[in-house]
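[Solved] Which block belongs to which protein?

Original post:
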Amino acid sequence: GWATNGIGFSEYPRDGNGPHHFVIRGCTIHDIGVIYGNSDSHAISGNGANDGLIEHNEIYNVGSGITWYEFSDNTSMKNVIIRWNYIHDTHANFDANSRGIEFNMTGYNTSDKSGNMCYGNIVENVGDVAYRLTWAEYEVEFYNNVAHNCGISFYFYHGIQDIGPNVKLRNN
């Protein structure tokens, strides 16, 4: 707690290899970007990933809860599972975005973005978006999630005319 950012993986991984085979479990992450911050102030963030699991964390008073990016043609983002987290009371200090959980993927490119899932999470008291997905041509599943008292519960965007993101929603 009380840091500019929480757990973060390289925004520009060496040779396009992002984090892989990792687990972030049972952490309490709080008060990120409250005293010193920036427009990110993420509790957990990274760029590209393979076979990652983020579960059973409590995250509060942060600029955004869990933010995962894939912004490079050669960086894949596959089999990232975000489940059973409780994210609440985010903020917009230092122009932070006050979001819960987001997958931000680039437009069409050669990288693999398959097998990503988000389920069993609770996001509440978020000023902007509880669950956000951008630029996903591979299907991302969102199921058994709760969004309470949020600016927008679920936001899905692709950015290419006449093409929507590939998303499966169930029991949210």
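(Second protein starts here: sequence line, then its structure tokens.)
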Amino acid sequence: MKHMAGPKALHFSELARLRTTIDAFPPRPIADFLLSVFIKHTTDTFFYFDQDQVLNEIDQFYKDPSSPLRSDISFVCLVMVAFALGSQWALLERPHESVISLHRDNDYLGRVFYNHAKALIPDIIDRPCLRSIQAPFLLGVYLMPASAIGSSYVYMGLALRKALAFDLHIDQDDQVISDREREVRRRLWWSIYSLERLEKMSLLS
């Protein structure tokens, strides 16, 4: 079984794109609101990521300017897509006063978040980590209701092939990884496989 590694050193061009994307992160109240909407409205059927882990990491990201997560391009890409997806459902919630202005431009903001995440995809394709699988998967999900089924299927296919390359489809008893990580891998694999198959059938019908 292939194991996921941590972030590797970035090239200058990658670092420039990463910093541009981090500068586009919303203020903390908006980030918390979008993630709560994302978790509430998009995770009833398919598994995308370990929610507790990501929420803890977001807290670290915003509170600690020296956090290694600020150098993790896969993490930043994944969170940007989560913001984009949250914006699609924002109108269904009553935000706090500090984020009420989000509702006036949520479609535009969602597209901004999406564009930033999309720009990072070439930089994470060869990175051996779960987030480099989760990010294109979520990009595919984001595009599904946007009448962009072809582009969505491309991202789904990328996520599926990366998942296969890193043996997420093989359920092995490996003592190196924790039970929690093993369960994350298992759920992520079946979510990617199931949604990619459904999307393929819709394209062929």
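Accepted answer:
You had them paired correctly. Confirming on the second one: The first helix runs from residue 12 to 23.
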